[in-house]
Inverse folding.
């Protein structure tokens, strides 16, 4: 509440500026606390590494150290035997920690533990650390990306980006696409059709968006376009906020065929005329096929003057036919659970 006097004209601008400064200070303070914690954990780990090498410390000493530290600092967490061993792994993995050259300096301890336990190659670990900082991944998302071996898939799609997009956008778009995409949250039988694949992806839209990556905004499925009095439908339409362009995804349940390129080229031309805003970049097309022959794909893309990529995808393995009939149905399981509840 104010005293009734009108606020100065520049009050709103001042308030906005101060809010920004306070938020910035909060972030810097949090980062400073995190760096201090990591520095402490590294020094503890280094001390354990040195004494294990020089004096043959074993697991029993670490267990005793854990008990003594927890007794001395009961209000502090993080001194369990397991965490002390993580500190040792931290010091072993980064013997030169503290020189300010490692992206892990800015990661929370939980993220760092996931990297230390799941990624043994130092260069790959650095790749995931930088990607985490760039995209703001939570720990769960980081673990998912590691499990799906994202570093081996990103930037591997066959594309026309190098000759159809400006250099900066081409690099970003190239790194945006993967090959193969990992749809292990889906399980489709051998008789599935494109519409089954589309429905499955939409039913698991959150998982699908996670696999696509940061920056995708979902626009619609079976998006209608009218051209020359005829109706056409895009399987999936997205808008990418960093590339500032529409992304059309055409789903194929089978192998890549060269004729798919012509159809996507048509979709891109229409989308640029009917959907693209003057400030938007050219629309991008992605053909997602069950498998692709890289050589055939490269030939199919020759001479194409629009941004277009071809990737494959992996699905979860469907149940063998001989097992499918032996498993209880959802209805049977629900009836069994209800019976337990009534008992």
């Amino acid at each position: 509440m104010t005293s009734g006097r009108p606020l100065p004209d520049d009050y709103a601008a001042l308030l906005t500026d101060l809010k920004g400064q306070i938020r910035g200070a909060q972030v810097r303070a949090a980062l400073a606390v995190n760096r201090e914690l990591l520095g402490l954990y590294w020094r503890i780990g280094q001390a354990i590494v040195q004494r294990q090498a020089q004096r043959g410390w074993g697991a029993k000493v670490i267990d005793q150290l854990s008990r003594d530290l927890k007794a001395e600092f009961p209000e502090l967490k993080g001194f369990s035997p397991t965490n002390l061993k993580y500190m040792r792994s931290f010091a072993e993995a980064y013997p030169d920690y503290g020189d300010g050259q490692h992206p892990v300096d800015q990661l929370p301890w939980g993220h760092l533990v996931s990297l230390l336990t799941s990624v043994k190659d130092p260069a790959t670990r650095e790749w995931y650390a930088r990607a985490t900082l760039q995209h703001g991944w939570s720990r769960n998302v980081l673990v998912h990306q590691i499990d799906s071996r994202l570093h081996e898939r990103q930037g591997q799609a066959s594309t026309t980006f190098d000759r159809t997009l400006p250099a900066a956008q081409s690099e970003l778009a190239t790194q945006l696409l993967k090959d193969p995409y990992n749809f292990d949250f889906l399980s489709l039988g051998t008789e599935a059709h494109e519409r089954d694949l589309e429905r499955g992806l939409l039913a698991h839209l959150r998982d699908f968006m996670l696999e696509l990556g940061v920056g995708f905004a979902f626009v619609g499925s079976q998006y209608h376009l009218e051209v020359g009095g005829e109706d056409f439908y895009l399987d999936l339409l997205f808008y990418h906020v960093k590339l500032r362009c529409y992304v059309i995804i055409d789903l194929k349940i089978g192998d890549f065929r060269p004729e798919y390129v012509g159809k996507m080229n048509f979709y891109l031309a229409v989308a640029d005329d009917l959907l693209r805003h003057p400030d938007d970049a050219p629309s991008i097309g992605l053909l997602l096929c069950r498998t692709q022959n890289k050589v055939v794909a490269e030939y199919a893309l020759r001479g194409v003057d629009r941004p277009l990529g071809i990737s494959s995808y992996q699905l979860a393995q469907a149940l063998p036919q001989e097992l499918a009939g032996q498993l209880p149905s959802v209805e049977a399981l629900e009836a069994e659970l209800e019976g337990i509840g009534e008992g």
Notes: DSSP finds 15 helices and seven strands in the chain. The CA atoms of residues 198 and 251 lie 7 Å apart.
